[in-house]
Specification:
about 230 residues, globular, alpha/beta
Length: about 230
């Protein structure tokens, strides 16, 4: 079966910032069967028309006036059940030892990207992966990531990993929204009573959880993988 994966990141400057504003660097991914792509895009366009909300969909743009539109996107995500799934990795930057990554923050970042994707790639499927455009010091990062995923998933096919501008790809934008919700809980950035809190609570209600947080490995709809760099079970 053919799948598409749309990826985005949050707090990616935590590895380099001298005054970090959060604890967790997070990378997110939205997974769906390729045949559903056009149908989902049409439904999002219809929601834009219904609510008269245009421009790029972003977590940072959630506001009281646009809340009904963003809530409808959460409903849309939920309506597809396991045919639309989200997974993110949360990396505690205080625990990252850059000596293990040759003192190369960019290399470390893409190693965590690999961990995000590898565990949801299943045998006998075909995957196309689309990442939000990011300026890399080494222009071969995505090429190497694809090679690593191919070598570690020999019974599946990684057709491509492509960098695209999120402003042009609505499903990367939807990933940004879901990642923002997860990031707001993991980094404790939600303001009580805000439009963003209402959106997160709507998502939590759909997922039947009290609060978004690290999930078990088996969680398939909305998986938050807090990698344990200190070791343990």
């Amino acid at each position: 079966m053919e799948f598409e994966v749309y990826c985005d990141e949050s707090m990616s400057d935590l590895f380099t910032s001298k005054k970090p504003k959060g604890q967790y660097l997070m990378i997110g991914s939205l997974w769906l069967p390729a045949p559903l792509r056009d149908e989902i895009k049409i439904k999002i366009r219809n929601l834009r028309q219904k609510h008269n909300v245009w421009g790029e969909i972003k977590w940072s743009k959630v506001s009281p006036s646009k809340l009904p539109f963003y809530l409808s996107l959460i409903d849309l995500f939920n309506s597809y059940g396991l045919n639309m799934r989200f997974r993110c990795i949360a990396v505690n930057h205080f625990q990252v030892n850059m000596l293990l990554h040759n003192n190369d923050e960019e290399l470390g970042f893409y190693k965590f990207y690999y961990q995000l994707l590898h565990h949801w790639i299943l045998d006998f499927n075909e995957y196309r992966i689309f990442c939000d455009a990011k300026t890399n010091r080494d222009p071969k990062r995505l090429q190497v990531l694809r090679q690593c995923l191919r070598f570690s998933n020999l019974s599946s096919t990684i057709k491509e990993i492509q960098s695209l501008r999120s402003s042009q790809v609505v499903l990367i934008q939807l990933c940004d929204l879901l990642l923002g919700a997860a990031n707001s809980r993991m980094n404790r950035a939600l303001k009580q009573g805000s439009a963003k809190e209402k959106l997160v609570k709507k998502l939590e209600t759909h997922l039947n959880v009290d609060t978004l947080g690290p999930t078990t490995r088996d969680e398939k709809k909305f998986n938050i993988f807090r990698i344990r760099l200190e070791g343990g079970w």
